[in-house]
Write a structure and sequence with these properties.
Layout (H helix, E strand, L loop, with lengths): L13 H21 L3 H8 L4 H33 L1 H21 L3 H14 L2 H12 L5 H29 L3 H20 L23 H5 L4 H14 L1 H14 L3 H30 L1 H21 L3 H12 L4 H10 L7 H29 L12 H20 L13 H4 L2
């Protein structure tokens, strides 16, 4: 058995990792609560017009992502300069405020304000990833990032099912529950979440805070560019799920909020199984490079299955296949973090989050447009799964690009290992 200090880095321990994972799980539980009901609430405010509702949801997604793009690099830079703990806690409290506004929303305009607040304050994941890089050695990071994914999965096991059940009572109720969870999470972290970045390792000045300069880290470390492109395509593809899935299943199979919540709970079980258990077994066995390609290929296959599903049972059967997409994120994150020093992990995560935010600016409107084009009497064709076909194509391209890019030699940066040294 590896000695305990193998899990230590600058005073951080397994307990610190457990704290951040619980923080992520509680945050995602709040998000999972509202996923089944937000599209339904928007559809209600849109007087039952599904095509109009999907455009509004696309606009919501773009607004949320644009504000993430503006704010997350700042949060990453602040965490490098002042520590991870205050950033995690303040963003969690801000998310609670956003959910409170949603719970009280009497109109579409109020929802826009609430989504804006959520976009500004949703810095938890970027800072959590930097926290993971602080407390785990490079050879353990893929597994640790997988645990973050598992925390996501566990939050989605309970969250969507509970959100669907609460939404069946009142569409505003899940937002109130999410607000309570965020406040409880803030109080929990206030007392038990330790700081992971010692003062001696903090950046001497604020770097990477300007979102327009967030990509400078990729210029300084050009070996990151191929991975960034792959992760960008994956993030754009992922935007098909929150914006289209609920309305697609309602239109195609007649699912209500509870039906969607139960299926999303199953998605969470599958995701937690892959990212919480299988990532730590599969990635060491086949290497980060192959795991990245395999995960992207699984995501493409799952989306293709969703697109042509003739029944709800068919779609549910595709969920375990789609879950193996969860191999891609931890592997890509691990490959990326190996390329920069410890004092730049927050900056890197802020830049990656900014990149993801850009993808989420593009993705929601892209898939809203495709969905509208493929549905209703005004649609060009009658094929509601068209948005999923586009997502499958994006992930297929990403898998091919990952296969090509990660086999190319990359010069080590600041003593970090190159990509070929961490992949077979």
């Amino acid at each position: 058995m590896r000695p305990r200090r193998a899990w230590r880095r600058d005073g951080a321990s397994r307990a610190a990792l457990a704290f951040i994972l619980v923080t992520v799980a509680l945050d995602v539980l709040g998000i999972g609560l509202v996923i089944p009901v937000l599209p339904k609430l928007v559809e209600r405010f849109a007087a039952g017009d599904t095509r109009h509702a999907v455009w509004v949801l696309g606009t919501f997604g773009t607004l949320y992502a644009a504000l993430q793009f503006l704010c997350m690099p700042l949060m990453g830079a602040l965490s490098d300069r002042h520590g991870r703990r205050p950033v995690v806690l303040l963003s969690t409290l801000g998310m609670g405020l956003g959910y409170t506004l949603m719970a009280l929303a009497p109109s579409m305009g109020w929802l826009f304000v609430a989504r804006a607040v959520a976009g500004i304050t949703s810095a938890n994941i970027a800072t959590a990833n930097a926290y993971i890089a602080d407390v785990t050695p490079p050879e353990k990071r893929a597994g640790a990032f997988g645990l973050v994914g598992a925390a996501f999965g566990l939050g989605f096991v309970v969250g969507p099912a509970a959100g669907g059940a609460l939404g069946a009572i009142d569409l505003h109720l899940p937002f109130a529950a999410a607000a309570v969870l965020c406040v409880a999470n803030f109080v929990y972290g206030l007392f038990v979440l330790p700081e992971s970045l010692p003062p001696a390792q903090r950046a001497p000045r604020l770097r990477g805070a300007n979102p327009l300069l967030a990509g400078q880290v990729f210029v300084e470390h050009p070996q990151l560019l191929p991975l960034t492109g792959v992760l960008f395509l994956s993030a754009v593809g992922h935007a098909a799920l929150p914006g289209v899935f609920v309305l697609f299943t309602g239109l195609r199979f007649g699912w209500n909020a509870l039906d969607v919540g139960l299926v999303l709970a199953f998605v969470g079980v599958c995701s937690a199984t892959v990212q919480g258990g299988l990532v730590r077994r599969i990635v060491p066995a086949i290497g980060e490079r192959r795991a990245l390609v395999l995960g992207l290929a699984a995501g493409a296959t799952g989306f293709a299955g969703y697109a042509v599903a003739p029944s709800g049972a068919w779609l549910v059967a595709c969920v375990p296949v789609m879950a193996f997409w969860g191999l891609a994120g931890p592997s890509g994150q691990s490959l990326a973090t190996a390329q920069v020093g410890g004092d730049e992990q927050g900056r890197l995560q802020g830049a990656l989050s900014a990149m993801t935010a850009v993808a989420n600016v593009v993705g929601p409107m892209l898939f809203a447009g495709v969905f509208a084009l493929c549905t209703g009497p005004e649609g060009a064709i009658d094929f509601p799964g068209g948005a999923f076909v586009v997502a499958a194509a994006l992930l297929g391209v990403a898998a091919f690009a990952a296969h090509r890019a990660t086999r190319q030699p990359a010069a080590p940066s600041r003593g970090a290992s190159s990509i070929p040294e961490t992949a077979p």
